Amino acid sequence: MGGSDMPLVLVRIDDRLIHGQVVVGWGLQLKPDRIVLCNDAIAESPWEREIYLGAEASAPYPLKVSVLTMKETLQLIQNAEGARERIILLVETPQDVLQLARAGLSLEKINVGGMHFKPGKRRLAPYIFVDDDDIACFKAISAMKIELEGRDVPGSKSINIIQAIAALEQRSKT
Amino acid sequence: MIGGIILTHGTIGEALLDAASSILGEIDNAYAFSTAKLSMQRLNSRLNQILTERNWSDGAIIMVSLMGGSCWNSAVAVARQYPHVAVVSGVNLSMLLSFFTKRDRYSLLELAEIIREDGIRGIAKFAVESH
Q1: Where do the DSSP E strands lie in A42-146?
Q2: Would B126 be classed as within a structural domain?
Q3: Closest partner CB to A19 (pick from B41, B68, B80)
Q4: In terms of residue numbers, what domain contains B103?
Q5: What is the CATH number of the domain that holds B23?
Q6: Distances in Å between the alpha carbon of A43 and those of A39, A52, A53, A70, A75?
Q7: What's the pTM?
Q8: Looking at CA atoms only, how far is residue A20 from chain B in angstroms?
Q9: Torsion B13-B14-B19-B23 (CA) sign
């Protein structure tokens, strides 16, 4: 998210993908023209695409939704036409963010909005659970000078992900 | 019997089911749970678990709080795997009362349409004109 011409108003990790917190919570605040859901598996599954495209009808403001593969996402954001829109970019995992960043997408800040409990994951926040691979990913993202902020909805408290990981690692040592 | 599952944000579902029982008396073949703190996979598996265990002969309706919300996304993803499961969004007390009082009289698809209409019919407005 370099200059002011960059279209990304929010880049978010959320394993529930497009849902109320994103469309209503962040959407009403950021007034996006488009939500881009970047997920190869969903982009290639017609019925899953359909579910998430439904947000166009349910959003309380005019909204376009694109469900794209990672490759298509990079093309959309890097081409000039896309740059005139305000875009919320959604991915499912920190691994997705790392892949986009390594593919050359310019990112300044990542919103970590939902990584819900799965067996073997440890709690970083009530809505963020991580395993060792997630932690390694976050550290790699941070090393690329990309800020990582935990926040589920605009009105909630901001969590510094890297500090929270350090605290988690400290706790597991003792 | 058509089963009822109420899947909502927060504790709306439990509270609505509780309110419906206070009006209709004890209600069976109904479940309410929240999307809070559950991943999509866990939401889906909870729905699958209820549908598989109960295996309602006349099908089931999943009533959710918000179209396009995680409750809707999960319910639709699960419902498409079953021949007799419908999803209706915007669950409110009118819709629930309609569901519980009419479910023995209609087929699954008829009931889904009827409770959608009754849910909407329950939304009215009143204001004194001078306001």
Answers
A1: 64-68, 87-91, 109-114, 122-125, 128-130
A2: no
A3: B68
A4: 3-121
A5: 3.40.50.510
A6: 6, 10, 11, 9, 15
A7: 0.85
A8: 5
A9: positive
Residue B130 counted as domain residue: no
pLDDT digits (tens, 9 = 90+) for A23-72: 999 999 999 999 999 999 999 999 999 999 989 988 999 999 999 999 99
Task: Please count the structural domains in chain B.
Answer: 1
Res. A80: pLDDT tops 60: no
CA distance A174 to A169: 9
Nearest to B68 among A58, A117, A127 (CB): A58
Which pLDDT score, from 0 to 100, does residue A2 have? Answer: 43
**What DSSP character marks residue A66?**
E
In this structure, is residue B61 part of a structural domain? yes
Contact A46, A16 (CB under 8 A): no
Q: Is residue B129 part of a domain?
A: no
On whether ipTM exceeds 0.90, the answer is no
Q: B9 in contact with A at a CB cutoff of 8 Å?
A: yes
Residues B55-66, mean pLDDT to the nearest whole number: 96
Q: What is the pLDDT of residue B129?
A: 84
Q: Which two tokens stand for residue B53?
A: 């265990």
